[in-house]
TrEMBL record:
CDD domains: ABC_NikE_OppD_transporters
Name assigned to this protein: Peptide/nickel transport system ATP-binding protein
Name of a matching Pfam family: oligo_HPY
SMART domains, per database record: AAA (SM00382)
Organism: Promicromonospora sukumoe
Length: 283
């Protein structure tokens, strides 16, 4: 059996919170992620879904080593990366990149697109193939942006275009895994579809692996290979995309599906047929 490209095992993340006794009282802790495990094979997409506060974005940041774990491990291609020091993290950052929710807040407003896109390579202390200008233009064209706009600033782009800049920045170092943390949730529906199509094209052509964080199940259905449903810091259901959508096992998953009006009618019909058959078999 092949080793998953990205594996998280028994992840726990606790944050200190001040108790009601005031500043002199020893702080309590809040467990945002509680014993979460998952695996993603190379070239696949695992979607972590759940309502706001479910712990999915914190889990994503643990997997990307933007946060340190309280306990548990993160492995990339079989190597435990949980305790990597600063120098070794540079190598990890080449393999795992993040596309954030709000493109404007994640892009430096004082930097041009060229400087933004080439910054990860400079951090990696790597040369820029063909020079910064040619490298940026090629990446901009790759993500569907006009290469002639490489000297513009983030505020001069629409939200969808700014998110494409974020995707270009993530691609600059040639990652194997891209963590998309609510990467399309701030975009209009039509723009969401365009960015999802771009991500799917990039996955097919570059062999990328995605950890996709979302609360919109209609979006998840378009891109995910597998789905893991989170609530209160735990994964309560995981499985192949169609199995989770058409025959959810956990009550929380069923509630999530019932609450989303944009699920396509044919998906909803299939889910209701499976639910009816399950109920009939239980009688």
């Amino acid at each position: 059996m092949s080793t998953p490209l990205l594996r998280a095992t028994h992840l726990v993340k606790e944050f200190p919170v001040m108790g009601t006794g005031g500043v002199l009282r020893r702080p309590d802790t809040f467990r945002a992620v509680d014993d979460v495990s998952f695996e993603i094979d190379a070239g696949d997409t695992l979607a972590l879904v759940g309502e706001s506060g479910s712990g999915k974005s914190t889990t994503a940041r643990l997997a990307a080593r933007l946060l340190d774990v309280t306990s548990g491990t993160v492995e990339l291609d079989g190597e435990d990366v949980t305790a990597l020091k600063r120098s070794d993290l540079r190598r990890f950052r080449s393999d795992v990149q993040v596309v954030f929710q709000d493109p404007y807040s994640s892009l430096n407003p004082r930097h041009t697109v060229e400087r933004i896109v080439t910054a990860p390579l400079l951090y990696q202390q790597r040369s820029i193939p063909g020079g910064a200008r040619a490298f940026t233009r090629a990446l901009m064209e790759r993500v569907g942006l006009d290469p002639d706009h490489s000297q513009k600033y983030p505020a001069q782009f629409s939200g969808g275009q700014a998110q494409r800049i974020g995707i270009a920045r993530a691609l600059a170092v040639g990652p194997r895994v891209v963590v998309c943390d609510e990467a399309v949730s701030a975009l209009d529906v039509s723009v969401q579809a365009q960015v999802i199509n771009l991500l799917r094209d990039l996955q097919r052509e570059e062999g990328l692996t995605y950890l996709f964080i979302a609360h919109d199940l209609a979006v998840v259905r378009q891109i995910a290979t597998r789905v893991a449903v989170m609530t209160q810091g735990r994964i309560v259901e995981e499985g192949d995309r169609d199995a989770v959508f058409d025959a959810p096992r956990h009550e929380y998953t069923r509630k999530l599906l019932d609450a989303v009006p944009r699920i396509r009618p044919e998906w909803e019909a299939a889910r209701r047929r499976n639910a009816a058959l399950t109920a009939e078999g239980a009688r």
